[in-house]
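Collaborator request, handled under Task 6.
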Amino acid sequence: MAEVTLKGIEKTYPNGFKAVHGVDLNIREGEFMVFVGPSGCAKSTTLRMIAGLEDISEGDVYIGDRRVNDLPPKDRGISMVFQNYALYPHMSVYENMAFGLKQQKLAKAEVEQRIAEAAKTLDIEHLLKNKPGEMSGGQRQRVALGRAMVRKPDVFLFDEPLSNLDAKLRVSTRVSIAQLHNDLKAEGQNATMIYVTHDQVEAMTLGDRICVLNQGQIMQVDTPMNLYQYPANKFVAGFIGSPAMNIIKVRIDDIDGVMNVIAESGHRWELPKQKQGLARQRTGEWVWFGVRPEHIQLASDFTSPCEVNTQRHKIDVVESMGNELYLYFQLGGDRMISRIPFDADRLVSGGDSALLKFRVSQCHLFDLDTEETLGQEPVGLKRP
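Structure tokens returned to the collaborator:
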């Protein structure tokens, strides 16, 4: 297997539209890297430039120590799994998996061995004689994975491979992909995988590291935990996490020697000790204040409404997720959401007034103009 290096990659179309803006990225050998971002952020375009399916306007792509800009896809040592499976409908599963190997003129015994190994890993041994039309979407996607596996590529590329599957199949196939990566590593093959998705659950559960893209630029590259805990900017903070982080505009004020943030609605929160010094340097300034839904909880029955960072709000809508509830409420002109565990003894309904406790020890502050995060990382997690 091999590492993949992007150096100043750009993509400009004939009409002048620039889709990718100078992307620099090193994907380590054996790493599972996920490209994630909203629709139109150029994650698939970047993947297709690595694959050789899109021309590179500027910059260089290296797979291992080879510059591959001018190599056709078949010579890059990659295998690609597409969203629409791209299986030959008139061929059996075995024939689909064998097709590329026969083009390489491998011996029949080698072809049979590779297919048998891949089929066993993906639990599709019983499907080898079937044709794609006789199988479910999840089975067809596993066949597409098997076809990629048997080529024993340097790099696996996945372009939103699960987006056509229903929720249950997405979960099971996602587990199959993760298991494939682990199995290959256990066998001594450092399987480098690059995976494109718009689904952050896939990104957070699959990736060793995640590259968050927006408008053709890298916003942040980090481990899933660090992206969640230490977003580099307001975009990453709002994109990573489900439900999304609550982010509102606030002013920093000194109240009796303690730094607070005050929303346009008049609601205020006392900042935690670790942010007091930073906030004091910006007294009177407007910033973005972020708090995740799970850090807004129902206050204890014994909590005083006057307790710091505790506020009473009218709950507009309650969404039940089975094991947890999403509580929607208004804070001035901003819609906020709280994520709480389901508790049969403390049910909340739309229209209720609820006392909510904001855990601002977990809050985030972002510059109003640059939208970059303010302050140092909390003590605890370490970057790789």
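The cover message to the collaborator said: "Residues 54 and 190 are 26 Å apart (CA to CA). The two ends are 22 Å apart (CA to CA). Please let us know whether this matches your experimental observations."
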